[in-house]
Amino acid sequence: MYDKLWLIPFFPLVGSIINGLFGKRFIRNEAAIGAIGTGAVFLSFLVSCSCFFTLLNDPVKVHQQVVASWMTVGQLQVDWGFLLDPLSALMIMVVTGVGSLIHLYSIGYMHGEEGFYRFFCYLNLFVCAMLMLVLGNNALVMFIGWEGVGLCSYLLIGYYFEKKSAGDAAKKAFVVNRVGDFGFLVGLFTIFWTLGSQHGVWTLNFVEISENAHLLGFGGTVVTVATLCFFLGATGKSAQIPLYTWLPDAMEGPTPVSALIHAATMVTAGVYMIGRMNVLFAMSPTTMTVVALIGAFTAIVAASIGFAQNDIKRVLAYSTVSQLGFMFMAMGVGAFTAGIFHLMTHAFFKACLFLGSGSVIHAMHHALHHAHLDDDPQDMRNMGGLKKYMPITWATFGISCIAIAGIPPLAGFFSKDEILWWTFGSTRGNLLVWGIGAITAGMTAFYMFRCFFMTFHGEQRTHKKAKDHVHESPWVITVPLMVLAFLAVVGGFVGVPAALGGHNQIHHYFEPVFGHAQEVYKIGIKEALEHSHAAEYGLMGLSIAIAVIGIGIAFTMYLKRPELPGRFTARFSQLHRWVYNKWFVDEAYDVLFVNSTKKFATFCWKGFDVKVVDGVVNGTGKLVNVLSTALRYTQSGLLHNYALTMVLGTVVMVAIFLLQ
Amino acid sequence: MENLVQIALQNVNLAAIMPSLVLVCFGMGLLLINVFLPRGTTRPAVWISLVGIVVTAVVTVQGWGNPQYGFSDAVALDNFATFFNVTFLLAAALTILMSDDYLRREGYAVNEYYPLILFTTAGAMWMASGTDMMTIFLGLEVMSISLYVLAGFFRGQSASNEAGLKYFLLGAFSTGFLLYGMALIYGVTGSTRLTEIGAYLNSHSSLLANPMTLAGLVLLSIGFLFKLGAAPFHMWTPDVYQGAPTPVTAFMSAGPKAAAFAAFLRTLEYCFFGLKPEWSAMLWVLAVLTMTVGNVIAISQTNIKRMLAYSSISHAGYALVGLVAANEIGYSGVLFYMLAYTFMNIGAFAVLILVGKQGEENLTLEGFAGLGYKRPLLGVAMSVFLFALMGLPPTAGFAGKFYIFAGAVKAGYIWLAIIGVLNSAVSLYYYLRVMVYMYFRDPTEDYAWISLPVSVLATIILAVIGCLYLGILPNEVMAMAKTAIF
User: Fold this and answer.
1) Do B222 and A646 touch (CB under 8 A)?
2) Which residues pair with A71 in a beta bridge?
3) Do A631 and B296 count as a contact with CB atoms less than 8 A apart?
4) CB distance A625–B299 less than 8 Å?
5) Any idea of the CA torsion for A43, A49, A50, A55, to the nearest 10 degrees?
6) End-to-end CA distance of chain A
7) What are the distances in angstroms from CA A376 to CA A364, A365, A451?
8) Quick check: A602 and B274 in contact, CB under 8 A?
9) How many other CB atoms are there within 10 angstroms of residue B433's CB atom?
10) B311 vs A contacts (CB less than 8 Å)
């Protein structure tokens, strides 16, 4: 089965090419385009399934397939190679599984859009790139995927490119990501060069890097610098402080894009990358601490911004940033399994939330359009009481909110609780991180239910002309919602901790990937806590209590006493202003980086480029042109001149040789 | 008498010349068949010649890894020859594919064209597999005489006649140098076998400094340098390339040029390895001169066919860098480059044929204005070829230049590599100008005359595939090129 690995990224690539080349002129039919796009990803999903289950029953857990040799330069040999281990197997399941559902959903959501074919072409291309990213057996193949998903993200955020805000958001995402990519490359070359020149291991292959990582020495400068650079790359892709500002703006793209790329898959690339290089990260406690702290701060800052947003997609965007912060917290304290576990459960419920919001926006848009109103269809202040119109969307959205809030026995509870347990009890744990994590969990419950109540419950604030045009979405939209909601319910059962009588299967599943680093570098739950269920029960109780409190406050403020939020904002108007304006981080970046870069660029352009560079270049060009015209006259067209030139050349050459 | 026959027959090994034998048989057969074809019926000839090339290719490929020597070591069908033979056959096949419609359009749908291409190819094959100066000379003449006719094939057009005649006269002139060089070398060593010459010079090292040897080397080189169009023996190329029918130009600049490289490379390496420093120094200067002259004059051309002629000179210069390097990567780089150049150059000429309009009226830069919008697929294909000619990734041109310049750097000729790269930068100017016209100028024509015959389309598609394949996955072919050199 493993020799079929290449098929997994291949199908979406073919789908993308077919729709891209023939979609506009030849296929045209929306159903056919949608079927090709969805079918391609679904085929990948089938192959992924078979790989996944083969691997599950296979005692050998690491398989590589080399499709072709890519380049050989000096000592370096790079292949088009794929790597299947438990980590990439889980990732391809998530990417193709959630991807298939979102493709199906898009058929309904994008119905009637101009450039329908273009959307599916990009979306397929994205899935292909993402699969390359997770399946690559060496850092360069991963990097192709890494850049590929960045490109597709840019194309899809800017899908409505006639809108200036969409174009700007796309550019912002691209530029911010470039900063991160720079870090990734520097880290890569640091490792490559050090391993090669000092230890004679010239490789970019992940398996070989992991095997030889110990040569770099535990806690060494090189490892720390390189992993910090990698982490910079991760902050770009996964929207962490300081590079998180692009993600909320990325909501300019169509909602399925937000669901697939900016919630379920691409943004988790940073987490995946740390998982892939866990041995390197485990060797640098400094980096691990940085990762955990950055994750924690991102989590709480983003959650706080989520409090005050009124655009339903922005709330979800900040929630994504915050949840990614949780994953990095996990990676930082050595809870690699918990981090990837949360990645998976988050993919289910966050995709469901985004698609649910899309369903709402879709309905609102049509209703408002029908009534000839130009109210914002994404503003929750125009919603409320939608439950009775959209029962399926309501139910699935609600389930996902409970899941993300961390109420047992839904998926989010198990993964989030595992993370909090490790931040508290791990040998690399940190009480500060744990504290922030616990508070953020409560905040998450609050703002998610704020969003839920504002959208589906309470008084209906939609303009009365539009009210009755709100309808439940068609089956292509609701079926993916239901599947994802189901996964959000049961997805956590693979990681039921021993304390609750479970077997924590996912922990054993990841043993071959993370076990080595955790064992060698002594990462695990502290011995004192390891067998004490009491502490674990206590923490669980606490986190459930926090979640319930968060939901309770939301319930009080937005359902029982809707006048409270207004009074609250009036009372703390300064605080609200800061939170509402996202702590003015964008403005600060504008002043610090954007404007100063612009000024510097203007100087370079007018002062240096126009005067010096252009002068030299144009001068050279003129010189060559003059020379060219002069030389042209030697080509007289006369045969005897040509013969004479040959003779002269011969004479000179013979003379030089003989007179040496 | 009987004894003599036996001795001679023992040395005959037909397997060593099998590919060219097959090809020549097809060519002869075609000449005979042509007699029975009504005038203007060319399709059968096209098909037969294509079949001939395919059969030859099959025979050729089977020789890979299975070297055959024959005719008292005058012919060697080793990997080196096979690699080049494949290049020649590719060039011939692509040329034939794009010729028919062109010849018909220009009113010269004459069947003799196809056997001539096959004979040229056979001549080129003997040059690549010649291990005796006489074999090489024989191949060179078979190839050249067919080419003289092909260059002047449009006998009603003065430009074509001029091209044929100029090429013939200067070619005869250069053959004089070549023969004179061979005679001198024979005089010094008493043999025409390349290996024997090499061994003799090696064991009598005082002869290496002998003026007669040196003069022989120089004159011999000039014969080859003329064929591959290196400065200052390049003067014929622009006139001949411009005047000859476009497919012939495409073919000449790919196949026969590669043949000259093959014979030159083998001669230098077999006979004159003792004089490596000397000829390296000589070729260093000539490579720089060739690259620079070709590129600089190309800048001021407005006729694209002529521009490509000068560009072809500069590409010979790049390939010479590989000979200067004279190491594994340099030599195999030359092999690789000739193959890559076949794809990109013939592809570019194929586009030229389509855009050219009847009577080749539309070959100026202005004639390409807005082509990229009016004919998007042709525009993309032309862009691929131009990118390859510029040497930009991910095309074959990049990989080829990379290997050749890497060979130069490895051999310590860092300045040569730098000059080569600077020359590539200069060449961007005139290649990109075509793209500027294709994409940044408003169309002045509707290009209604462009039809896309399947055969020309096939040429273009094959060339695009070749350019991209060799550019993205160069490793395999490069590994083969490495096993092909000595």
Assistant:
1) yes
2) A78
3) yes
4) yes
5) 150
6) 69
7) 9, 8, 16
8) no
9) 18
10) none
pLDDT digits (tens, 9 = 90+) for B129-186: 999 999 999 999 999 999 999 999 998 899 999 999 999 999 999 999 999 999 999 9
Nearest to B287 by CA among B197, B416, B440: B416
CA dist A236 and A182 (Å) reads 10
| Structure tokens, A313 | 């997609």
Cite the beta strand spans of B312-420 per DSSP E: none
What CA–CA distance (Å, rounded) separates A335 from A428? 9
Domain residue limits, chain B: 276-486
User: Distance between alpha carbon B19 and the CA centroid of its chain, in Å?
Assistant: 18
Joined together, the tokens standing for residue B35 give 């007699």
Interface with chain A: mutation pick from B175, B221, B227, B235, highest number of A CBs within 10 Å: B235
Q: Inspect the interface and report whether the beta carbons of B218 and A657 lie closer than 8 Å.
A: yes
pLDDT score recorded for residue B2:
53
Query: What angle (nearest 5°) sits at the alpha carbon of residue B127, between those of residues B247 and A637?
Result: 50
The distance of B208 to chain A (nearest Cα, Å) reads 12
Q: Which residues contact residue B377 at a Cβ distance below 8 angstroms, ignoring those fewer than 6 apart?
A: none
pLDDT attached to residue A522: 83
The residue type found at B211 is P
Phi, psi of A552 (to 5 degrees): -60, -45
For residue B285, the model assigns a pLDDT of 94
Fill in the DSSP letter of residue A569: H
pLDDT < 50 stretches in chain B: 1
Phi, psi (degrees; rounded to nearest 5) at A459: -75, 140
User: Cβ contacts of residue A47 below 8 Å, gap of 6+?
Assistant: A4, A7, A8, A11
Encoded tokens for B436: 């500027």
Half-sphere exposure (Cβ direction) of B478: Cα atoms closer than 13 Å: 25
User: Of A307, A381, A319, A367, whose CA–CA distance to A572 is shortest?
Assistant: A307
Q: Which of B214, B233, B473 sits opposite A649 (nearest CB)?
A: B233
Both tokens of B377, joined, read 């697929």
Q: For position B407, what pLDDT does the model report?
A: 93
The tokens describing A131, both together, are: 């699969």
Q: Which residues of A touch B (CB under 8 A)?
A: 68-72, 621, 624-625, 627-629, 631-632, 634-635, 637, 639, 641-643, 645-646, 648-650, 653-654, 656-658, 660
- Positive or negative, the CA dihedral A556, A558, A560, A562 is positive
* DSSP per-residue letters across A373-423: ----TTBGGG---GGGT-HHHHHHHHHHHHHHHT-TTSHHHHHHHHHHHHH
Q: How far is A199 from chain B (nearest CA, A)?
A: 24
Contact present, B438 and B372 (Cβ < 8 Å): yes
For every residue of B202-268, DSSP letters joined together read HH-GGGGG-HHHHHHHHHHHHHHHHHTT-TTS-THHHHHHHHS-HHHHHHHHHHHHHHHHHHHHHHH
Q: DSSP 3-state helix, strand, coil percentages of chain A (rounded to 5)?
A: 80, 5, 20
Low-confidence ranges of chain A (pLDDT < 50): none
Distance CA A27, CA A46 (A): 25
Q: Which pLDDT does position B9 carry in this prediction?
A: 58
Q: With CB atoms and an 8 Å threshold, state whether A624 touches B299.
A: yes
Write down the ipTM of this complex: 0.85
Largest Cα span, chain A: 106
Question: What is the residue whose two structure tokens read 């490895």?
Answer: B410
Give the pLDDT of residue A113.
Answer: 82
Closest chain A CA to residue B399: A71
Residues of B with CB under 8 A from a CB of A: 166, 169-170, 173-174, 177, 211, 214-215, 217-219, 222, 226, 232-233, 235-236, 238-239, 278, 282, 293, 296-300, 426, 429, 473, 475-476
